[in-house]
Structure formats: structure tokens, C-alpha cells
Design a protein that fits this description.
- The chain has a single domain, classed as 3-Layer(aba) Sandwich (Cytidine Deaminase, domain 2), CATH 3.40.140.
- By secondary structure, it is of the alpha/beta class.
- The protein is built from 6 helices and 5 strands; from the N terminus they run H-E-E-H-H-E-H-E-H-E-H.
- Helix 1 runs parallel beside helix 6 (about 130-145).
- It has helices at about 5-20, 45, 55-65, 85-90, 110, 130-145; strands at about 25-30, 35-40, 75-80, 95-100, 125.
- It starts with a helix and ends with a helix.
- It has a 5-stranded mixed β-sheet with strand order 2-1-3-4-5.
- Its EC number is 3.5.4.33.
Length: about 140
């Protein structure tokens, strides 16, 4: 299985968010080439500002494993994580984060600059599907204006 395969799974989650009127961000957590957690934004549905795709996917992964650490897992997320999600990812000790599109306005970098908020062993990478993710976000916000 490839990064593109799993990012496409995250994109499916983002499309669910789009269809529900949520900001279209999706995430999957993968361990040993198996998805152990999925999530998409539920902020509006749950009236909960913490119900981000990453948080939901992490919770599902923790429940699947019965563990609070994901040192060997990879998170695939369609948009670069915000500072809140970066904090949760730090505590999860996730091994790798792959995001499709950078978010200069709302990502963790807005608060941390060049300092990484992730666990020292976490690898962070830009990945596939950037154009598709960017277009989905643009379409979502154009429809709301």
C-alpha cells in the first residue's frame, strides 16, 4: 500500500465532511498497512470546536488498539494539522504524519513558527492529493460566500 492509497482514503473522509456541510478535512490512521482509525470534521454536527478530523481518527485508533500511543502508526490528513491537533498528535507519539495541503492560515505553524510541536521522533511530510484537497476546500468556501 502507498501513501497515495491512504491519502485517497482520507480524501473520502473529507468528501463526507463536505457533504455534511463541514469544513472538508478527513483523516485516517494506518498501522501495518491497515486503517485503524477514520475521521472527518464533526464540528458543526456536534457543536464541538474540538471535533476535528484528526481528533476523531486518533480516538478511533486508540479504541481499536486499546492503547494511547501510536508510535508505529501514520496519520494521513488532507490539510496540515492545527495547533490543537498537533498537541494531541504530540501526546499520541505518532510515528509519522502525512498531509496533503499546507494551511498557512490555521496550521500549527501560525503559533509555533519553525519549531515543531510534534514528538521528536515524529516524521512530518507533505504528501499526495494536494491539488484535490485544495480544490475541495476552495469549492467549500466559495459555496459559503
Amino acid at each position: 500500500m502507498t501513501d497515495e492509497h491512504f491519502m485517497r482514503q482520507a480524501m473520502q473522509e473529507a468528501r463526507k465532511a463536505f457533504e455534511d456541510g463541514e469544513v472538508p478535512i478527513g483523516a485516517v490512521v494506518v498501522l501495518n498497512n491497515r486503517i485503524i482509525g477514520r475521521g472527518y470534521n464533526h464540528v458543526e454536527r456536534l457543536n464541538d470546536c474540538t471535533a476535528h478530523a484528526e481528533m476523531i481518527a486518533l480516538t478511533a485508533a486508540f479504541n481499536t488498539l486499546g492503547s494511547k500511543y501510536l508510535m508505529e502508526a501514520t496519520l494521513y490528513v488532507t490539510v496540515e494539522p492545527c495547533l490543537m491537533c498537533a498537541g494531541a498528535l504530540y501526546w499520541s507519539k505518532i510515528g509519522r504524519i502525512v498531509y496533503a495541503v499546507a494551511d498557512d492560515k490555521n496550521s500549527y505553524r501560525r503559533a509555533t513558527g519553525d519549531r515543531s510541536p510534534f514528538h521528536p521522533k515524529t516524521k512530518l511530510e507533505a504528501g499526495p492529493c494536494s491539488e484535490e484537497s485544495l480544490q475541495l476546500m476552495k469549492t467549500f468556501f466559495e459555496q459559503r460566500r
